[in-house]
Amino acid sequence: MKKQFNKNILVTGGAGFIGSHVLRLFVNKYPDYQIINLDKLTYAGNLENLKDIENKENYHFIKGDICNQDLLNEIFENHHINGVIHLAAESHVDRSIEDPSAFVETNVFGTISLLNTAKKYWPGNTKDNLFYHISTDEVYGALGKTDLFTEKTAYDPKSPYSASKASSDHFVRAYHNTYELPTVISNCSNNYGPNQFPEKLIPLIINNIRQKKLLPVYGKGENVRDWLYVEDHAKAIDLVFHKGKIGETYNIGGSNEWKNIDLVKLICRIMDKKLKRQSDESKQLITFVSDRPGHDLRYAIDASKIINELGWEPGLQFKKGIDKTINWYLNNQQWLDNVVNKSYLKYYDKMYGSR
Ligand code: NAD
Ligand code: DAU
Question: Per-residue pLDDT tens for 249-261?
Fold first, then answer.
């Protein structure tokens, strides 16, 4: 007999960096939930990230695009979806500067397609349904030297990526306000940890140090980011999904600000020790390159709302988190090689090609 689940949750973008950690947490912690992972498997989606849970009874993968309305209808209908955790997105700022249109397509149009599907299948504002939209602190724009982003900070996105995420946030709020769709949003700072695609700063630097390649630092390396360990973000998502108030927004951040240049030097020092290289050897690879156009100077989150109202706290100290992260990449060099030479893209055909 087919197992009855207490909740049927659609996670979008689950083969990506944060999505894979969210899936691992939910699939293992909630065996009574059916979790459907809808992912298009773009260059950033990697099913190797989910090997340890792919055969679990409560997990099901569907390859597909969040812009495909017919597919979304089919999934909501066949799986009786009553919760959405929406992570699928084009997520890299530099790519958005090269080609903004893919960001409008997935981040804006894809989000509206999902909202329309939830609106169609969840008539009335019932307590049993929730549309949870995962967003970024970049929607708030750039900070000066001392202030922090709160949930009340006015939106001021500066890059095509953040403009597309801000637009999607506005649509989520509009659907709540206009159609009473039960929604919640969280805006998080920079995540780091295992399984992050090596186009983002931390895995890129780790990968280049390992290969003794130049370490590109944009501008003077003065820009500041607030880094949070990805599993702490996944725990915050679990809390907001279960305890967040409908219609509310929660900021999530690590209270852990680093200037890019200091962070890169720290990774150099740790890796020189681990790889038994001369001290300061990797630092020589640091190369200042042209700045990112419109580069936001500083992001930093005031997370007091989620801490005070939902009891969340970032568990892992940065020194431990970065050490754990570097160890993961050094112990999983095949993962990095597969990503860099794109052979991981063949994993789907191997695993699912005949289905
Ligand atoms: P990622 O780029 O690693 O993963 C994105 C995933 O979405 C991939 O698996 C990709 O295949 C999938 N995807 C892309 N377009 C799709 C489409 N049209 N249909 C279905 N699937 C599609 O991204 P990430 O870093 O894990 O970020 C996940 C979410 O969290 C994004 O919404 C991002 O804006 C947000 N966020 C990220 C960070 C961060 O530091 N990485 C911080 C705050 C918020
Ligand atoms: O703040 C949350 C955001 O963090 C997320 O919404 C985005 O999806 C995620 O990509 C991240 O955006 P950033 O632009 O901050 O991350 P990135 O890793 O691309 O860059 C971090 C900082 O490092 C930024 O100031 C640019 C700089 N940088 C980046 C790269 C790739 C370099 O100096 N050199 C590089 O090669």
Answer: 999 999 999 999 9
Neighbours of 135 (CB within 10 A): 24
Domains of the chain: 7-191+227-254+297-317 (3.40.50.720)
State yes or no: is 138 an active-site residue. yes
**131 C-alpha to ligand 2 centroid (Å):** 27
Give tens-digit pLDDT for 100-135.
999 999 999 999 999 999 999 998 767 789 999 999
Mutation to probe ligand 1, out of 17, 84, 114 (largest number of atoms < 8 A from CB): 17
- Report the C-alpha gap between 258 and 97 in whole angstroms: 24
CA distance 101 to 161: 10
pLDDT digits (tens, 9 = 90+) for 330-341: 999 999 999 988
Q: Measuring from atom 36 of ligand 2, which residue has the nearest CA?
A: 216
**β-pairing verdict for 83-86 and 191-192:** unpaired
137 is catalytic: yes
Ligand 2 atom index nearest CA of 260: 23
Residue 290 exposed, middle or buried by CB count within 10 Å (0-12, 13-18, 19+): exposed
Distance, in Å, from the CA atom of 19 to the CA atom of 271, rounded to the nearest integer, reads 27
Residues 9-32 pLDDT 10s: 999 999 999 999 999 999 999 999
Which tokens belong to 215? 């370490």
Say if ligand 1 is within 6 A of residue 235 CB: no
Residue tagged active-site, from 90, 138, 231, 232: 138
200 lines ligand 2 (CB under 6 A): yes
216 lines ligand 2 (CB under 6 A): yes
Measure Cα distances from 231 to 117, 192, 315, 320 in Å: 29, 9, 9, 13
Query: Among positive and negative, which fits the CA dihedral 308, 17, 282, 225?
Result: negative
Write b or e for each residue in 88-121: b if 16 or more Cβ atoms lie within 10 A of its Cβ, otherwise e: bbbbbbebbbeebeebbebbbbbbbbbbbbbeeb
* Nearest protein CA to atom 3 of ligand 2, as residue: 190
Ligand closest to the CA atom of residue 201: 2
